[in-house]
Design goal:
Blueprint (H helix, E strand, L loop, with lengths): L1 E10 L2 E3 L11 E5 L6 H13 L2 H5 L11 E6 L2 E5 L11 E4 L1 H7 L8 H44 L9 H5 L7 H16 L1 H6 L15 H6 L9 H11 L6 H8 L19 H9 L2 H21 L1 H21 L16 H21 L9 H40 L2 H17 L2 H52 L5 E8 L6 E8 L2 E4 L12 H4 L2 H17 L8 E5 L7 H17 L2 E6 L2 H10 L5 E8 L5 E5 L2 H4 L7 H11 L4 H19 L10 H10 L10 H15 L14 H14 L6
Helix pairs in contact: 4-17, 4-19, 6-16, 9-11, 12-13, 12-14, 14-15, 17-19, 20-21, 23-24, 23-27, 24-26, 24-27, 25-26, 26-27
């Protein structure tokens, strides 16, 4: 229990609240103060003490001062203080009904938003439920943190995922120590599949065709004609030379010999018998000789075809083609390229052998009847060529092996599915990437975070089930309590369909308003104006009444309420007379059930009504007054004296007339003056005396000029004084009749009076 407010320094209006008298507090504490004097500040101090939240006080640090905010209270358990940064202790058993409670838990302005529903849920479920809700919220927060960690890890992992592979598939890829060779092989398959048409159409390697050495050359060179005299060829050649027929004479004579059928020359007709030259011609141009010449020419031609420039050119082209073909197939087939390399000296050896053979054949062709032996140059060229020829045969065997691989690749490629082949490569690459050190670390963190989140979610589900079970036991009873309070306040509405849900993963309450037996949703700020909702179906008084009902219902079911300090800050705002009286009754009941009740109000009449219900020995009244440059001060107050000469229900009567028109005009005019006089005396006790009438008050404000604290009230109070004085004073006042008083004018001044004392119903 709060025993004494020792001091509040540098917080809001309180530069230093200490003043004399500063009495010991009782079970019922009444604090009177005009609006703007510091009632809300006191509630903030108490809320900071309850929560241990220094920010609440630091945010209300008195502007224009250098000192830090400090607070000193005396509790029944001992002193407690705030040193500018933290409280020496907290008092969790404080519950406060004020604008902050309403704005946080019920509504703000004219609407109910999601935060109100979330906070109201915590009000409904009570201390046990709040503990579960806080644990559920803590776990939900941890889950969100883990979700953030998972998302961060996924963001880091995602660039390494191949197209079409999920995060879960990537994380579970097994490690493969032989991954590099598998990737290399698969890359070739993909390359083949990518160029399937090229692979299908591309040529195989071709075996090199290199001729054997001219095997018949040696026999041809040594061949002669036994039936031809040794000088026959010489005679023919000499004759051709003599007659300058070396170029074409041989052919001419050979053809002419076909016409020499007798011993008479077909050209000149002379006799040829017995001529040695004719005999030589007959022998030289005979069939055997012609056959020999033909054989020489044939071998020479064949040698030119196999070893000449044309053959060498074709071989060179084939070698180049094979080289390009091998380079192409290297991308798709694995083979030993070195086995396909053509012997470096092959072409030179072939050309050299051809030249040597052709030289011998020319020599033979010029002297067909002469035996020509193989030269040493030819034999050397032939030996070198035969060695290289053997190497080419080995290479051709390698070409045959590679062609078998190429044929298999062509068959494979024809049936290959590029998409699946690429996917397989992507998977192999993903396996390699998955198990690199940096990615493996991120994946490990992701897996751990997922496991942690799963464990947290399991705990959260368990707690939520307990919370669900608890909520089911309290929601309907709470709704019934609310409706009972609304009935007691004579509200024209009740609640229905009170339930809870988890939008955004946070426990939230919702309810409907039932007006004239029609259920409507409370809506929110976005609810269209032409649709019934909280903001356009409840008056300001209704909204305050609902908020108070929520607070009272919550306090009623609090099993620890006997230890609670219940604080009410202007709990009757915008209420009619009946609801004000009911509020007095409910505060009295709370006071009898709680350790202490603190009531703050700008209306001393309301405080007097509660004061009269409280046990005389347990009640203490304080007043906040404006000490100008010294800020607001707290000091003891005599409520009975402050309310002396007036009836506690006078404001209620003015409210009743303003709302219903009921009441006697002359009585109301008198009450207007008394209400204003009492308000000014109690609000500014240092500036008005207990016997100051309304005219005195107006004069003192006017004479105080701008320095008077009630200067802002002057115009209104002056006009109301002028209006009421004409009926309140004078010799003929007893003869005044209601007909002499304009009801509309009276209503206007009653409303202005209520506004000054902060009792105008919204």
């Amino acid at each position: 229990m709060l025993k004494k407010i020792i001091s509040i320094k540098n917080v809001g209006r309180f530069k230093n609240s200490a003043a004399s008298p500063n009495p010991q507090l009782g079970n019922y504490v009444f604090i009177y103060g005009a609006n703007g004097f510091g009632k809300t500040t006191i509630c903030s101090v108490l809320r900071s003490l309850q929560m241990g939240d220094a920010a609440i006080l630091l945010g209300r640090k008195t502007l224009g001062v250098t000192g830090i905010p400090t607070v000193e209270f005396l509790l029944d358990t001992g002193p407690v203080s705030f040193d500018g940064s933290h409280w020496s202790a907290t008092v969790p058993n404080i519950v406060i009904f004020d604008g902050t409670f309403i704005a946080q838990n019920v509504y703000s302005g004219e609407t109910v938003e999601i935060d109100h529903k979330r906070n109201l849920y915590r009000v409904i479920i009570g201390q046990e439920g709040v503990a579960l809700a806080e644990e559920e919220a803590r776990l939900a927060s941890e889950s969100r943190t883990k979700t953030g960690e998972i998302s961060a890890a996924e963001k880091a992992i995602r660039p390494h995922l191949p197209s079409g592979m999920t995060m879960a598939q990537f994380l579970t890829l097994p490690q493969d120590l032989d991954i590099d060779s598998k990737i290399e092989a698969q890359e070739k398959r993909v390359a083949a599949a990518l160029q399937a048409s090229d692979v299908k159409a591309h040529a195989r390697l071709s075996a090199l065709h290199v001729p054997h050495t001219p095997g018949s050359l040696s026999g041809l060179l040594l061949r002669t004609l036994d039936d031809i005299a040794d000088d026959t060829e010489g005679r023919v050649n000499e004759h051709l030379k003599t007659h300058h027929m070396a170029a074409t004479g041989e052919r001419w004579i050979s053809e002419g010999m076909e016409y020499l059928k007798t011993d008479s020359c077909p050209f000149c007709g002379q006799g040829t018998g017995g001529l040695a030259l004719i005999s030589a011609f007959r022998a030289f141009f005979g069939e055997a000789y012609r056959n020999l010449k033909a054989d020489i020419a044939a071998v020479n031609e064949k040698t030119g075809q196999e070893f000449g420039d044309g053959a060498i050119g074709k071989l060179t082209t084939q070698i180049a083609q094979n080289r390009a073909t091998a380079e192409f197939w290297e991308h798709y087939v694995t083979f030993d390229y070195t086995r396909l390399v053509v012997p470096e000296l092959l072409v030179d050896a072939m050309r050299r052998l051809g030249r040597e053979a052709e030289g011998l054949l020319r020599q033979k062709a010029s002297s067909p009847l002469e035996s020509i032996p193989l030269s040493e140059a030819f034999n050397g060229a032939s030996e070198a060529y035969l060695t290289l020829h053997g190497q080419v045969q080995v290479m051709n065997e390698a070409i045959a092996e590679v062609n078998s691989l190429i044929d298999a690749k062509k068959t494979e490629t024809a049936a290959a599915d590029l998409k699946s082949t690429q996917s397989a490569l992507d998977r192999l690459r993903a396996i390699k990437k998955r198990h690199t050190a940096d990615v493996a670390q991120i994946c490990s963190e992701h897996i751990q975070a997922v496991a942690d989140k799963a464990e947290i979610e399991a705990d959260k589900d368990s707690i939520r089930k307990q919370l669900e079970d608890h909520t089911k036991t309290v929601v309907q009873p709470y709704e019934r309590r609310i409706n009972r309070y609304l009935d007691s306040f004579n509200a024209g509405f009740r609640l229905a369909e009170t339930k809870h849900a988890y939008p955004g993963g946070v426990a939230t309450s919702s309810y409907q308003l039932v007006i004239n037996s029609v259920a409507i949703d409370v809506g929110d700020a976005k609810t269209p104006s032409d649709q019934p909702s909280f903001k356009n179906t409840l008056s300001a008084g209704d909204r305050t009444t609902l908020a108070l009902a929520f607070f009272l219902a919550h306090l009623e079911r609090d099993t620890g309420k006997a230890e609670k300090i219940a604080v009410f800050d202007d709990p009757f705002a915008s209420q009619d007379a009946f609801r004000r009286r009911q509020t007095v009754h409910e505060i009295k009941r709370v006071g009898s059930e709680c350790a202490q009740v603190v009531v703050l109000s700008h209306d001393v009449t309301f405080l007097k009504q509660v004061w009269e219900k409280a046990p005389a020995a347990d009640r203490v009244a304080l007043q906040i007054y404006d000490a100008r440059s010294q800020g607001s001060k707290l000091l003891g107050m005599d409520i009975d004296r402050a309310c002396q000469g007036r009836v506690a229900s006078e404001i209620d009567d003015l409210i009743t007339y303003e709302t219903t028109g009921a009441g006697k005009p002359l009585d109301l005019i008198k009450k207007m003056r008394v209400v204003l006089e009492t308000h000014c005396r109690t609000t500014y006790p240092a500036y008005f005396q207990a016997n100051d009438w309304l005219g005195d008050i107006v004069r003192k404000i006017r004479e105080g000029d701008d320095e008077h604290p009630a200067k802002s009230l002057y115009d209104e109070v002056d006009q109301i004084n002028d209006y009421t004085a004409s009926y309140h004073h004078g010799e003929d006042v007893a003869d005044a009749t209601p007909e002499d008083i304009d009801p509309e004018e009276l209503t206007g001044f009653v409303r202005r009076t209520l506004k000054i004392v902060n009792a105008l119903q919204a």
